[in-house]
Design a protein that fits this description.
The chain is an alpha+beta fold and 409 residues long. The protein folds into 3 domains: 42 residues; 171 residues, Beta Barrel (OB fold (Dihydrolipoamide Acetyltransferase, E2P)), CATH 2.40.50.100; 184 residues, no CATH class. 51% of the residues lie in helices and 20% in strands. The chain contains 6 helices and 15 strands. The strands form 3 sheets. A 6-stranded antiparallel β-barrel has the order 1-10-14-12-11-15. The radius of gyration is 42 Å and the shape is elongated.
Length: 409
């Protein structure tokens, strides 16, 4: 019996080793798996979409597109004119014609008043030839010079206002004809004829503008002479009643022409409303909202055309930034506790050339939202998450819409 005990002890040890070791190995494996799951739960790996600003360009009033000066995917800079819109309504076209007619009547009235000054001037000349010029005569002469200069200014202003409106129309006609000529829709002589008309009228406008500046200088000098004479210590006879009446009528015409010019300027500004690019970027020509552009099929028209009517706020173009500035990612409810504002994360770009960069969380969205379909694990099963805004650091080369990996450090 004493000889069999060692053998029995050895059998018992082998029995325990044979059954205990697998249990120990299994427990170690379970512990390792649990530790890995814990570490995985304490870290996160998500994906996001790089995106930049997209600014829609729209008219503030209903109107008709006159021209679109950019094309699809064309680079533009801030302040560049993208399109010109005519916001004048159909019934306002007649208003513009009425204002022009009133302006012509005012100019004719100014000419009539100028003709009334001629007899007065002749009478003054006859008086100076037959008698010594007295203070009253000098006052009338200086007053006539001033009023004659004012009348001439009125005539030139009326003419310039009318000619500039016509010049703008000719300039637009030349641009339209140039566009038609580039498309071989018209003969070259039609463009040349329009250019000759534009150049001739432009020269006339410049000459009248020079005459206007000279007349204003003449008016200033006439007023200085009149003021210097008035400061002399001499008896001041009353101004001729006829000249006083003409002066009052001239003042009325000045105010009338000033009001007409202001109304025409306001209408002209609405006739050529320039829509400018709000940022540096690339043009996205659209027929509707940005999301409608993204859903368009290849071959569909995306660019607004001249002559189309747009309503107030209806987008005509969209300008997107050249490079994205932020990444929007979505985290599940289980990962919410791992994220906070301004925490450091690592961005991983797998597209060639692959890059890894450090960034930070700018903000965490306040609500759970439906994730973009591109981020769904199964395209047939919608996923929800909380949006996270992440900064794109300098040096990380990504394009708008690119998928970027984000992971905890």
């Amino acid at each position: 019996m004493s000889k069999k005990r060692p053998r029995n002890t050895h059998v018992v040890k082998r029995y325990y080793l044979r059954h205990l070791v697998p249990v120990v190995v299994w427990l170690v494996a379970v512990s390792a798996v649990a530790w890995l799951f814990y570490q995985r739960a304490e870290r996160f790996e998500i994906v996001g979409i790089a995106q930049g600003q997209v600014r829609q360009v729209a008219a503030s009033s209903t109107g008709r597109i006159r021209s679109v000066s950019v094309s699809l995917f064309e680079p533009v800079h801030a302040g560049q004119t993208l399109a010109v819109v005519d916001t004048l309504l159909d019934n306002e076209q007649t208003v513009e014609a009425d204002l022009k007619a009133q302006l012509r009547v005012a100019a004719a009235e100014a000419e009539r008043l100028a003709s009334l000054l001629i007899p007065t001037q002749e009478q003054l000349q006859a008086d100076t030839a037959g008698m010594k010029i007295n203070r009253a005569d000098n006052e009338r002469r200086f007053a006539v010079d001033v009023e004659a200069a004012r009348l001439r200014i009125l005539e030139l202003q009326a003419t310039l206002a009318s000619d500039r409106v016509t010049l703008d129309d000719l300039a637009m006609e030349v641009r339209i004809l140039d566009d038609l000529l580039s498309k071989e829709a018209i003969a070259p002589y039609e463009v040349e004829r329009a250019r000759v008309q534009y150049k001739s009228l432009d020269n006339k406008v410049q000459e009248n503008q020079q005459q206007l500046e000279q007349t204003r200088e003449d008016l200033r000098r006439a007023e200085e002479r009149r003021n210097e004479f008035a400061q002399q210590h001499l008896p001041e006879p009353s101004v001729d009643h006829a000249l006083e009446a003409i002066r009052k009528e001239i003042t009325v015409q000045e105010e009338l022409i000033k009001g007409l010019l202001a109304q025409l300027a306001a209408l002209d500004a609405r006739k050529n409303v320039e829509l400018k690019s709000p940022i540096d970027g690339v043009v996205i020509a659209i027929r509707g909202r940005v999301n409608e552009v993204l859903s368009q099929r290849p071959g569909e028209q995306m660019v607004r055309r001249a002559g189309e009517v747009v309503t107030a706020g209806d987008p005509i173009l969209a300008v997107a930034e050249n490079e994205p500035t932020e990444i929007v990612a979505y985290v599940s409810e289980n990962q919410l506790k791992l994220l906070k504002d301004q925490m450091t994360v690592q961005l991983v770009k797998t597209r060639d050339p692959a890059q890894i960069a450090q960034s930070r969380v700018l903000r965490v969205g306040p609500t759970i939202e439906l994730m973009p379909q591109r981020l769904w694990r199964n395209p047939n099963v919608p996923q929800w998450g909380r949006p996270v805004l992440i900064d794109i650091p300098a040096g990380l080369s990504v394009v708008s819409g690119e998928i970027v990996g984000i992971r905890d450090l």
